[in-house]
Design a protein that fits this description.
The protein has 335 residues and is α/β, with parallel strands linked by helices. The chain has 14 helices and 12 strands. It folds into 2 domains: 114 residues, Rossmann fold; 201 residues, NAD(P)-binding Rossmann-like Domain (Rossmann fold, 3-Layer(aba) Sandwich). A 7-stranded parallel beta sheet has the order 8-7-6-9-10-11-12, with helices on both faces. The protein is globular, with a radius of gyration of 21 Å.
Length: 335
């Protein structure tokens, strides 16, 4: 029997996990954990978290019996892997649960921007105005979609783009030429993609190499009047550079499900009362608020993963990860 603590899991998820992890001592919490909100159980063998948690070396140090962490996400930048390696703690993720889910959401953001859907909704709801004179959008057919990162989600985004009769350019450090030939995608350099795309959609993991991948210099290459879509990780984009490009008119708009310092913005009360804020860039927190207030920017709360089917796939893989670890056949290891 293992002692397993789940953080950031809703009541329906708790019932789901209880059904498939019988025989173990399970602890459930809806809130996330970080240094300011450490785990309340100290005897746990296995920890399961979601992206809202920040599993630092200090958090790991507070759990003397911890042997395994399974994050219910594809990304794992919220876990200090170096600290885990020092303690010989294995870390697993959920490598595939929502390639269609996140890709569909990316296109939802694209359509909200291209067809002025939110503007139309707000005009009718708030003003009772059914005029369409100021709501002209643009077709996607014939436009060029640039997909940065062609893992599972990026590939599905490219397929949807082809379904809209768009030209699709792709960039990846490891191009999948077989995939490109099959659906008619053209791999190009990052610079060429930025210069030629009407819409750029980001689908790369966050790591040292992708931090501010889209920075001031890269944004300067983008086609005037183009749009940026980010459903991957906030820090892939230099927030202050993005604000500048939107203000100058270089970019016509952006659809953001993620942004830098999103946790600080989501829970500003905790941020303001925190003992140490040196890990946060206050300029980015301010820039986030500017983005939220811009009329040509759609900001959503890291919601691209959030469908019933995807959440069940996440929990199914998490159960498999736990059971495989306990059988000494760990899977989906990231460290």
């Amino acid at each position: 029997m293992a002692n397993i603590a789940f953080y950031g899991v809703k009541p329906w998820g708790q019932e789901y996990l209880k059904k498939y992890l019988k025989g173990h001592k399970l602890y459930f919490h809806e809130e996330h954990i970080d240094e300011e909100h450490p785990p309340t159980e100290k005897d746990i063998d296995i920890l399961s978290v979601f992206v809202g948690s920040n599993v630092t070396a200090e958090v790991i140090g507070s759990l003397p019996k911890l042997k395994y962490i399974t994050t219910r996400s594809t990304g794992f930048d919220h876990i200090d892997l170096k600290a885990c390696e020092e303690r010989k703690i294995l870390v697993s993720n959920v490598p595939s649960y929502g390639e269609n889910t996140v890709a569909e959401y990316a296109f939802a953001l694209i359509l909200v921007l291209s067809r002025r859907i939110y503007d139309a909704y707000e005009q009718v709801r708030e003003e009772g105005d059914f005029s369409y004179d100021n709501l002209q959008g643009f077709d996607l057919m014939g436009k060029t979609l640039g997909v940065i990162g062609t893992g599972r989600i990026g590939k599905h985004t490219a397929r949807i783009g082809k379904g809209f009769d768009m030209e699709v350019l792709a960039y990846d450090v490891s191009p999948d030429k077989k995939f490109a030939r099959k659906i008619g995608v053209k791999y190009v350099s990052l610079e060429k993609l930025l210069k030629e795309s009407d819409i750029v959609s980001l689908h790369v993991p966050y790591m040292k190499e992708t931090h501010h991948l889209i920075n001031k210099e890269k944004i300067a290459l983008m086609k005037k009047g183009s749009y940026l879509i980010n459903t991957s990780r906030g820090a892939i984009v230099d927030t202050q550079a993005l604000v500048g490009a939107l203000k100058s008119g270089l970019l016509a708009g952006a659809g953001l499900d993620v942004f830098e310092e999103e946790e600080a913005v989501k829970d500003e009360a905790s941020f303001l009362s925190a003992k140490d804020t040196t890990d946060h860039d206050l300029r980015n927190v301010i820039a986030d608020h500017i983005l939220v207030d811009m009329p040509n920017v759609i900001v959503t709360p890291h919601n691209a993963f959030n469908t019933k089917e995807a959440l069940e796939r996440i929990l199914d893989t998490t159960v498999e990860n736990v059971n495989k670890f306990l059988k000494r056949k760990p899977q989906n290891i990231v460290n």
